[in-house]
Predict the structure of DNA helicase RecQ.
Amino acid sequence: MSHARPLSASLFDQEPDFPDTGYPDTGFHDSGHPEAGDFVPDHYADAPEPSIIHGDWPEDDAPQGTRDPVATARDILKRVYGYSAFRGNQEDIITHVIQGGDALVLMPTGGGKSLCFQIPALARPGVAIVVSPLIALMRDQVDTLRQAGVRAAYLNSTLDWREALDVERACERGDLDLLYVAPERLVTPRFLELLDRSRISLFALDEAHCVSQWGHDFRPEYLQLSVLHERFPTVPRIALTATADAQTQADIVERLALGEARQFVSSFDRPNITYRVAPKDNERRQLLDFIRRHHAEDAGIVYCLSRARVEALADWLKDQGLDALPYHAGLDASVRQANQDRFIKGEGVVVVATIAFGMGIDKPNVRFVVHMDAPKSLEAYYQETGRAGRDGLPANALMLYGLQDVVMLRQMMDASDSSAQHKRTERRKLDALLGFCETAHCRRQVLLTYFGEEHPGNCGNCDTCFEPVETWDGTVAAQKALSAVYRTGQKFGVGHLIDVLRGGATEKVVRFGHDQLKTFGCGAEISKGDWQTVFRQLVALGHLTADPEGHGGLMLTDQAASVLKGQETVRLRRDRAVLSGDGRRGGGRAGGGRAGPSLAPPDDKLWHKLKAVRLELAKAQGVPPYVIFHDSTLMEMVISRPRDLTGLGLLPGVGVRKLERYGATFLDAILSEAG
Ligand code: ADP
Ligand code: ZN
């Protein structure tokens, strides 16, 4: 390794990406043109199927849901979705909205927000209007609902005028249960007039944080949504978001005039995600070992900071035999779309991406998210890792983290020319992130505390819980390190500093006369690798910072003085061998150390067979496999091996319509394997 090389140069070969916000150039946005090869649903041209609910509900003029909202909600949950119990506060939310109440729902990704408006939509007479900012999300939800026999459609730029007209007519006639629409279309006179002519059951405002300028994906069109309440004051509204911070929440209430709405706040814990942060040590090897060992057949996302790193890593993974694809904002829109499609509609695809990837990805069986570079805040980290395990099954979040990351993040922040106040916020966020990376405590506790939620710790599902981290009194080592920085003039990188500390008389050390310093050789007892972790932690703790010019030199901060003067002790964590403890918990259901399919099914052969059956059915219809059955449902089939359709129909995720449509096919597969 060349010590003279700026530490961060290799990471910073290109500007970091920004998240794909779904604005016009991405093709996700409603005002964009449909892209070549885009999936255009053909089913709206046909007469709509009878609704699973409204088709066979007893003729009764009273709004169905108001008779007994709880019983109605549970009935729909079982019949349409095939689930037997609500999660968290779903039932409260749903019954409240069925009865005509307004609601603001804050629930983490994967918490089950969709059901909170879909079930009231089915219970109340009329069509529910769902405002959704991303075409990919609309499509996904409509595909899912139609598979379950619900009369759902969307109106967006991917439909030609004829198809759009069909949808509008269906809406007026009362032939739709749910209609998804982008915010900019909703507020057009044409659409508002359509609403005047239709019977509306409720308005659902998905991704409601888009109304807030403080949030990460502000959409000005959301501001106009208050028109709905003015124009249709008696129609209940339900706003939903996974963004929890107080400022955004207050904005949503104010700008959407939801002051009277009941607020439902869920825990933001994602108990099925296993969190791990491992020191970098041959990162590619670590990644490959991790995927091969835990996720050989799984879909996952690997985040890198720069486009160049994305390309190089995707190529390398491909060479290693993985089904890996790159995704970043510098790729052609058609390539991005194609890669995203392969990820969503395929099985076991790994996307290597910048943060441009992820918005609008609803794929429930993303089994792992890896950060090859530290993200810049815990908010970003939580959002990105939150894309794993939406289906509630075990999932892994792994961050590989090293000295370079810390130095670069500090340097980026110091170099930014934002206002003093802004800088303070950035510093606080960065400190929180670094604190999370370096913690010796339960990671989940650190995360949830940061988001303002209490958690007792010892979650039993993070690396520090699997294997407690040792700490040691690093005060003397820290003093030596800081003094080496000071005496060499605060302009050298870690490699050189370690040479000085360990008494390595390299050409460079001699040239600068650093072999004459008092600190030369004063730290020979500590290995090179251990010194690196000491320096990393000193930067993370804020005693050292990177020189703002980006030459990779380290400088003392004001804080360092108290350590040098012996007024402050420094406790350091002892890094462990990489990815030690595979996290396997009793019962093998935890996110950690499984190999192969996430849930270690008792019969691999049947599991693969069922996945193949599902993929074939999905391909024939041009939909993602998970809209047919979730992995968890296939897993239940493997575990319980139903012998007839009645048995199959009892499994979670098998609703009435899916049983009719796919029951025989899957049953055949199960019976033939059993025989
Ligand atoms: P969110 O929109 O909050 O990210 P979704 O509505 O997409 O979450 O739900 C996440 C997953 O959980 C979906 O695949 C959904 O089918 C499933 N799910 C939701 N509610 C339940 C429930 N009560 N029982 C079982 N699975 C559920
Ligand atoms: Zn823990």
The CA atoms of residues 94 and 312 lie 47 Å apart. The chain has four domains: 9-16+51-265, 273-466, 471-573, 601-672.
